[in-house]
UniProtKB/TrEMBL annotation:
This is 4Fe-4S binding protein. GO terms for molecular function: 4 iron, 4 sulfur cluster binding; metal ion binding; oxidoreductase activity, acting on the aldehyde or oxo group of donors, iron-sulfur protein as acceptor. The keyword Transport does not apply. Its cofactor is [4Fe-4S] cluster.
Length: 101
């Protein structure tokens, strides 16, 4: 029986893995903590934000949640720190600093 990618780990026999290059489920980072790849971290300055939502469609990782028509703080578990949101924010409501600084 072929296992889903989320079920595979270092002890899975090769017979239970998919053939290399073949994908059997949708590509998503929902199950993977991609935030560990980040070297720069965005910050959200709520007092400057007008909720224009320009940053939302530009985020390639869908790391900016929206609730009740207002953007929320970043989902840092999935943000890779590309800085696109920082560049497109007209209100300068997003900071972008070196990780751990």
């Amino acid at each position: 029986m072929i296992k889903k990618a989320s079920e595979i780990n270092e002890t899975t026999p090769w017979q239970e893995m998919t053939v290399g290059g073949e994908i059997y489920e949708g590509g998503t980072a929902a199950l993977v903590n991609t935030g560990d790849w980040r070297t720069y971290t965005p910050g959200f300055l709520a007092e400057k934000c007008t909720h224009c939502m320009l940053c939302i469609p530009y985020c390639p990782d869908s790391s900016i949640p929206v609730k009740d028509g207002k953007r929320q703080n970043f989902d840092l578990m999935h943000c890779k720190g590309c800085g696109i949101c920082y560049k497109v924010c007209p209100m300068k409501a997003i900071t972008f600093d070196k990780e751990g600084a």
